[in-house]
Amino acid sequence: MLRAWQEGRVEVLVSPLLLDELTRALAYPKLRERIPADEAAEAVRWLAEGATQVDDPPDEPPVRSEDPGDDYLIALAAEQRAALVSGDRHLLALSEHIPVYSPRAFLDELS
What pLDDT, in 10s, does the model give residues 1-39? Predict the structure, then answer.
């Protein structure tokens, strides 16, 4: 997926809430064991500088996730008319209602 982004075949969108969530997730102990703090910070910085930054939407999502913490992603994708790519089971369960793909399914779509 990163190669497709770097080649200009897809556009990656980020928002302040998404970058904040990524920063928190990369600090979880199970990830910190594999990704040192300085590398995690650099990855977030790289994404923030390279991706298209958009504002978090003020509107409610068109559908809700079983995990309310995912709703901002649904609203963001809806406002930007973008697909979500995620391994999150709560988001993937909504695939009949919104464009959401597992990373593998998204790569298959690109092929």
Answer: 889 999 999 999 999 999 999 999 999 999 999 999 999
Sequence-ordered strand ranges (E) for 21-77: 52-53
- The CA distances from residue 56 to 35, 46, 101, in Å, are 27, 19, 21
Rounded Cα distance, 31 and 86, in Å: 17
Structural contact between residues 15 and 56, judged by C-beta atoms closer than 8 angstroms: yes
β-strands 84-85, 100-101 pairing: parallel
74 Cβ neighbours under 8 A, 6+ residues apart: 61, 62, 63, 64, 65, 84, 91, 94, 98
